[in-house]
Design goal:
The protein contains no helices and nine strands. With 113 residues, the protein is mainly beta. The chain has one domain.
């Protein structure tokens, strides 16, 4: 029996955060998905992937503002974040995959009113 296309059978997300009373925090996170077929005939599949990330920051004791650095895809893994569903891809990739984001770092300041 064929599997439904474009749906990973397993998806996993986790994060671990350490926070000090002074307002500093550090967070590690992971996101993973199993491989999945992109066509109803089950001839072409997207590979599985695991992404790692980290976030560091400081939140003011008043909780009114925060600064942070957020790094994602630390290993710069190439992966398909989504795929076009086809009836029968015949095992060939014809631009069916949407690439995921490469390694990136975001910094920011948040203000709460």
């Amino acid at each position: 029996m064929n599997q439904l296309p474009s749906l990973p059978r397993q998806v996993y997300q986790a994060e671990q955060q350490y926070r000090q009373a002074s307002g500093f925090y550090a967070q590690l996170n992971a996101r993973a998905a199993s491989s999945y077929y992109v066509d109803f005939a089950n001839t072409l599949s997207a590979p599985s992937y695991t992404l790692w990330g980290a976030k560091f920051g400081y939140e003011a004791p008043s909780k009114q503002w925060e600064v942070f650095v957020d790094a994602r895809n630390l290993t710069n893994q190439r992966y398909a974040t989504a795929a076009n569903t086809a009836y029968d891809a015949k095992g060939r990739d014809s631009a069916n995959f949407y690439p995921g984001d490469a390694f990136n770092v975001t910094t920011g300041v948040a203000f709460r009113f």
